[in-house]
Amino acid sequence: MFPHRHDDERIDKYTGPYERWIFSEDLGRPFAFPAIRKGPSSHITALMEGEGMLAGTDDVELRIPPLWKENPDVTPFAMWNKSVDPDTDPVHEDVELARCLHALNGTRYRLNMPIDPVTWPTSYDATATPEGWQKPKVKPRVIIGVIDDGIPFLHRAFRDAAGDTRINLCWLQAARADTTAAVPFGCEITSTQIDQLRAQYGDQEVRAYKAAHAIDADLPEVDTVLMHHATHGAHIAGIAAGNDPFVGATDLPDDAAVIAVQLPNTIAWDTSGFGKEMMMLSAIEYIFNRARMIAQAYNCPEIPLVINFSYGWSANRHDGQSSFERAVDALITDRRKEQPCTELVMPTGNNFANDMHARFATDDLGDGAVSFGWQLKPDDRTSSYLEIWLPPERDPQGWTITVTPPAGSPPELQQTISVKANPLLKDGDPRRFVEIEIGGKNIGQLSADKHLGNRWRVMLAMIPTAGNLGAGRRTPVGLWTIHIDTGPDPLCEGEHIDVWVQRDDDPTQLGTGGQQSYLVDLSHPTPPRVFEPPTLNPVRGFGCLNGIGTAPSVFRIAGYMESTLKPSGYSGSASIKLDTQGGAVVDANLPAATATSDQGWFRPGLPSIGVLSGSGARIIGTSAAAATATRLIALNFIAGHPARQGFTELYPGITPDARTLTRTGPYRVPPVCGAAPKQPGEQPFIGV
User: Using CA atoms, how far apart are residues 495 and 361, in angstroms rounded to an integer?
Assistant: First the structure.
């Protein structure tokens, strides 16, 4: 049972359904990632959506990370709620966080993940030069930014011809802080420190990482990931910016400087899309800021910059209008006015064949209604999420969503929600909530909210199906049925309803116990598992594009198999719809290009470095394809060429089939990695 909250105690007044779910002990908090589950959250990250600058209070200290420009449209910040005693756990942490936001007197916030108090430096100066920092030995012709987890900044792949590091700066966002810092939390490692660590510890890299707090078993958000053979971040950084036999690519020159940001493990732990935007946006702002600092040190204009951010999630608006995407688009657009050679490269995602997207048009809604299935797997130890997005600018009248549990479940689990505002919930986005309960205990949250005040979303959040997690409740396993009824206000011609399931896979190095749920088309026979569906059934791979990669300025990269030149079976795709004649029409968010993500049927993925110097691994996914494109773009910028120089135009003079174009985009990136033969010690590693 979710208890009543007064107006100034409602976390959703400022944020949204994910925050209400994640931070409420009565809802999903017992099943959240460790940083939230252990509580209380005295230090927490957030976004302020809207113009202006934040100001703290006597009880709340605010910190804004290094920004590229003042007064952005979306401002990342971190706050320390001094009224929270870290030795006690508030009965209702969502109430405490709501009061904290209420004291800031802002208009709209998006709460993100907590951070450990030991990552909070005693003093912070956003305008300070990092202690001990020195500009690169030679003026960079390009700066390569890498944002990922588990980045091995000591690896030999990032040394120049003299043996010194090309990584000029690396922000470990979740590491223990120094007393004073030029970053608001975590630890900033400079090239000077990297070279000193190597000189002190030689080839004993694990000891060096421990000394730098990059391996810290007492902090779950850092942990011992860099003691693993391979990490996602090592692999991607190696392909995008490394010189090593395991990469098998032409070496980058010494004047290709690197700025890296290592995200907290939670970024990989929770794949729902919650809690990451502040860390991600701060990382991009930081790289832009530090790239400007390097340029100023050389008294020159902005230096060409390409950032690789091989991450994403599956749900979201998919129209480029989320807060994170709008902020990123503004940053890239503004920097290009000073330096046209500016790119942010992201993958299209790996969910094409996973039945995680559905699109319903007028022909799919018989009598104005449609039903589909949501299959929840057994022994899932993480929450599962499903989002239904209504057409943009549509204000539905009389729409309802009904959720029915699997056969044999208690009938009380069936719940219906109206897609309209609850008049008792004042301020914030128009919204309403319905809890799904069994025996008086909550297992789910059904919500409807007008996201950012301009697009309606219905979200269903469910606790794990595993029953041994200590909370005394679990979600029934099986096929849940979702029924959409448009009542007297049917879809118009050309409109459609999109459904996305959030990723819930299990990152190899973290062992979350997630089990991926999927959609079931109840109106059509189950199609064979093929990579190129011959028909456009409502449940489809088309449209499973990276949910945070749809901003217009993002350089989206799909994946193809080098031996066949065809799309990799998992590679994400833009959406398509049928026109009035039944033909397929491509949505706006095409991949910019397709790059190698698999070398062949018997050599899936791409080779790259492992964590320790001298080790190698192989990653499968469009993340590696994006890193390949990043490397070639960097080489183009060094040569004074535009980003797409050397890309192959796939369809010159012809109009390709929409189903093909949405999976490839108009260009192919030629192979630049993996030319070297298999190295001793190369180990397989499945990427995300």
Answer: 6
